[in-house]
Structure formats: structure tokens, C-alpha cells
Amino acid sequence: MRKRVFSGIQPTGCITLGNYIGAVKNWIELQKEYDCIFSVVDMHSITVRQDPKELRKRCMQFLCQYIACGIDPENSIMFFQSHVPQHAELSWILNCYTYMGELSRMTQFKDKSQKHAENINAGLFTYPVLMAADILLYKTDLVPVGVDQKQHLELSRDIADRFNKVYGDVFTVPEAYIPPVGARVMSLQDPTSKMSKSDPNPNGYIWILDDPDTITRKIKRAVTDSDGVIEYKEGKDGINNLLSIYGAMTGITPEDAAKEFEGKGYGDFKAGVSEIIIETLKPIRDKYNELIENKDYIEKIYKEGAERASSIARRTLSKVHRKVGFVDRV
Asked: Given the DSSP bridges, would you call strands 35-40 and 175-177 parallel, antiparallel or unpaired?
């Protein structure tokens, strides 16, 4: 049997170039070798207040973006997290096997608590347990994660180990998959911080649906430095970021990318980076524009995806119910 991959992305903002390089681009390759399950994790998004109409719209947009990027709904399971109720059910059970101290150490809880001080809700505190449920529900072998998500995956592993020690071999203990190149794309305006779709400065990120003029303008404004030398080395955060992006788009290392631009100025370098981004994203944008108008096709994908995901999830949850002592459902 092929190993299983689970991953998801919150439907907030738009899929950025950082999401594409660090996650979605790798999913496209992983689905060739693994049984892949990809989810729009809408339940996670409501730890922060959302406009209901906008949330529904973004969920549909994100699913279309997944497919436009190359996720194949024929080979991979794709669904909305809220359409598979076993995620919430398992999350409650796992809450009872997770310690307060573990959750209080989650760095993202601390960060979001500062950003949303008016709404530090229980869901914000416990959502790493829901993330663990997302993963463990499908007996996931491999989880594509960014460096900033490793802490959450470690918690999932700890919860799985703890449960297994009490009840036997119930959960698969997942491993992390971190791609060696382009795993962490940084902000174009602050290259010491990760590119984020929640960045208040729109010049800090590129959306995969941005038009060529917007991409060119954002790359032109990208922070570099004043020494005028294109090389990949410590202390050149802005240049390193652009080289990493170029390398990830072309399949070469940042060091080799630097050699391609050796002796050229920053203007030519940024033009080259813009060109490869535009070239890569054009077919994605074109495909997205087709998909977003084909609502019947998209509805078919997420309905069938939820059915396939639920079939797997029910088996896992039924086993968990028996282990903890719940009466069998009839």
C-alpha cells in the first residue's frame, strides 16, 4: 500500500507565492507517489472572526486554486474540513489527551493572541488539537509542513504516542516532510519574516492570481541591499529570498541561481525573477478563471471528496470510540 499524505490550508486571503512554493507545488509531486488528502481547513479559520459570506466565497476560491495549481481531484481527495464531522468529534476526544502546558507553549497561540487581543477564545488555544485530529484521522504517514508548523506536528506525534501507549496501536505516528528548496519564502518587504497572506502590506506578498503588472511592480519594490552584488550568503536576506524564489521556480539551488545572474545588476536580476514568476503563474491564473465559473464541477469535486474522506474517517473514529469505551453506534 502507498503511504498517505494529509495537508490543508486555511481559506484566508489568497494563496500566496510562498504557499505555492512551500506547500502546493510539493503536493503536486507528492500525489504521484502517495495517496494524498488535501483539505480546505475552514474550521481552523473561525478562531478569528470571519465574514460568513466572504468565508464561503474564499473556500470555493481556494478549492479552485488547488486544482488550478495541479492538484488532481481524480487521484487526490479534496474536500472542505467542515463537511467531515469526524474532525470535530476526534478533536474533542484528543483534547482529553492533551495537556494545558503543551498548548500554552504553542508559539502561534502567543502570536495570534497578541494580534487578536480582543478575541482570545478557547478555539484559538485548542486549535492545534484539531490540527492533530485532521492528521491522525486519516492514519497519515507524511505531513508536508513549513518550519513554523513543525511544533504543531510534534504535538500531533506526542498525542498519537500518548494515546497508543494507553490503548495500543490506534494511530499512525506521522512524519514531517520539509522540502529542501524553497520551503520558506520570506516577505518581499521584510525578508526576515515569512511571506504571509495576512501581511497588512500587500507589497510583501504575491498572490498566485496577481496579474503580470502587479507581480512586476511588487518584485521591483522588493527589499534588497546596497552592495549591488548578487550572491547567496548570510546577511543578504532580501537577495537570498529572491534567489530562493527563482531557484524554486526553475528547479535549481539558490547558489546556482546566483551564478545565472553573476555580474548583472539588481534591475536585471529583479526582471528575471519577475519573468519566471509570471511565466509559472499564468497557466494557473487561466485555469482558475475557467474553474471558478464551473460551479457544478467544483460542487461535484468537494461532495465526492467529502464522501471519500468520511469513509476513511469513520473507520478511524469507530476504532477510537471502542478503545475509549463508548457504546457502539447502531
From this structure: unpaired
Domain encompassing residue 258: 202-289
Type of residue numbered 206:
I
Q: What is the pLDDT of residues 86-142, one digit of tens each?
A: 999 999 999 999 999 899 888 777 676 667 677 788 888 899 999 999 999 999 999
Instruction: Extract the C-alpha cell encoding 324.
Output: 475509549
pLDDT in tens, 277-317: 999 999 999 999 999 999 999 999 999 999 999 999 999 99
pTM: 0.86
Terminal alpha carbon distance of the chain: 31
The one-character DSSP state at 53 is H
Domain count of the fold of the chain: 2
Same domain, residue pair 278 and 305: no
Residues noted as catalytic? 112, 194, 197
Residue with grid cell 552592495, as numbered in its chain: 227
The H or E element spanning position 304 is helix 295-324
Which residues on adjacent β-strands are paired with residue 175? Answer: 142
* Same domain? 93 vs 224: no
